[in-house]
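User: For documentation purposes, I need each entry recorded in a consistent format: the amino acid sequence on its own, followed directly by the corresponding structure tokens. There are two entries in this batch. Please keep commentary to a minimum and don't merge the entries.

Assistant: Recorded as requested. Entry 1:
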Amino acid sequence: MRIPHNDNGGLTFIPMPGFEAQAIQAAAAVEEYSRKRGRRYTPVDIKVPVFGSRASGEPFLKFSKQHVGGHDCVIIASGPGNWEMLGQLNLLLRYTAGRRAKRIALATGYFPLCRSDKDEGEDEFSLPQYVISQMMGAAHTTTAHLDRIIAVDMHAPQMVMAGPTGLITELTLIRLVLKAAIRAAIAAGERVCLAFPDDGSAKRTGKAIDAIEREFSIHLPVVCGIKRRASSTETELKQLFGATSALRGATVLCVDDEIATGGTNIKATRVIKEECGAQCVHAVVTHAVLCDGAAKRFLADGCAVDRLYVTDTIPVETRNELRSLTDSGRLVTIGWSAELGVSLYHHHWDLSIRELR
């Protein structure tokens, strides 16, 4: 099949450690999507970097020019942004630029340090702008720069303004995971209501709810919470408002951008069951951070969360600590490789990505 010319070069995916399978699946999605369109057939090269440490503990990276020089390169990664992840990412961005990539983009399902979107009192600064500056500095040479960051369901709307205009493109997957949860509930003959942590979250998801209601020919009652936030990791549900009477006897889908330790989610779910009479409650989120013993909390006797629906923006299958939660059936993972592939096809051919929302 003839490969059409692209001024950005051939398309290459560069997976960070742990994202090799996702890169392969996304590459297959790109090629399938381009075949279905009947034009612009787009093969994808995959270039796997090799990270290591010397005897002194200092890091190194083995990364040749093959499939990088002159290519449209997309690094596939995700947070959380720990020391190792951030260090490896910056080193890889520098190597990709140094190997003379034609164009460089970063597709990060969960944006690193996105929870730090505002100062934490007098001791901690907001860090996303700093992280973006680091990335841009790492990828900047006389011949290359970081052209785009594609991220999913960022913690706060203002995050897209953390870098230069047009640098960050935000995708939303909440419709994808919400549809899976609603489809399962309808199949079980359950009546569905939606609960959001705050009014802002409900407004951001409004278009997805409208589309789902049309697709399933249903009405989805909505309630929103009023929270008291002690810190970026601690919140308490103080009050619910909206269609609260519809919660009694219903399957309630608690929609949010992420679940971290699970403590806040479990407390809020207990209120929805005990005070509002919900029959069962499912957490529906994009990012499965699930850290600090979260799996044990959700498997504990008396846990009010009956099921969790998540995407694999942060891979689930490679995390042994989540295996018992998955095996129990309480954790349902919806893959996003197809959506990632379609988005990167549009990026490669300079088509709109926002229209895919």
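Entry 2:
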Amino acid sequence: MKKRHLKIFIVATEQSGDNLASNLMKSLKSNSFYDCSFCGTGGDNMLKEGLSIISHISEFKYIGFFEIIKNLKKILSILDKNYKKIILFKPDLIITIDSPEFSFRLVKNLRKNNIKAKYVHYVAPSVWAWRPWRAKNVARLYDLLLTIFPFENSYFEKYNLKTVFVGHPIFNEKIDYNISNKNLFLALLPGSRKGEISSLLPYFEKISEYMYINNIKYDLFIPTLPYLEKPINEFVKNWKKIPIVTSNKKYINKLYKKTKIGIICSGSAALEVSIRKIPIIVIYKLNIFTELLFSFFIKVKFANIINIIANKEIIPEVTNHNLTNKKLINTLEKLLYDIDKQKKQIFEINKIIKTLRLKNNSSLNASYELLKLFKP
């Protein structure tokens, strides 16, 4: 039986989106009835799965409202490049992942110019956290929304948008949960964007200094991405306690098994480390003006999704104007030397994580839902 050819344009602008999209591409390629070709914006993982790339995720390095405004010309140029490629590529399916500000503007332009395709967004914008009116806008733009948290569906279904919970991607990769009794490391994760890294690494340097001065036995390691390895190594080369910086996945997994605690930039990485049964602290730092602006719109008390779902602080958070060297080190001391607190965090997280898992992995579930759009 001859396979039906599908041309798919896919957009991911963050590392978590690149991971998600590459797994989705792999699942789509494994389908017996469709032959898929891919074009779009993404990262190295998507390239490995056969993406004909327009823009690389490394070009999306801006966080916060004012940072985006300052670099608006470049962002609009990337947007225009993607729009023009879609016109030439004539895809059957357009999938956007993460970065709603970029993705929604792109799809709005395409819809406005009557570009015929099926439109799908994967990973719902956090309308439950801020700007709830976006749910109605999403419903106008897309044919299908795929969510990774089960509580999100109701926000969009009330606007008659077909919305399907496909499970969380943290379960897509096989993880060795056997933690070594030899806790040798603290993991430091400063994010995947250059803006996040330049903002958070100075705080990690103070942790390095604190550990060196107090002769604390743990070593440091920073798991990162290939294109960030060189700038991070350059930044840490004069630290009192120099961390291991690596993008090698096998080596990262090996080090995680010997990790006592993770200090992590708020985002998907927090879940990815938590699932390994490693206690964590979440940190984040926005430009003070961006933080002030966002404070008028934010509807939730917490930055981390586990805390948001639980509506209490399971994972310690030190963010924005509260993020100081003193507060971060105090928070680290409280968790590092309190075994009961570590165990309680892992126990509470596991209860919530279980609700995010389905029988099949999220990529397979998502691919089934996408291909249903083309069934006669």
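Summary note for entry 2:
The chain has a mean pLDDT of 89.
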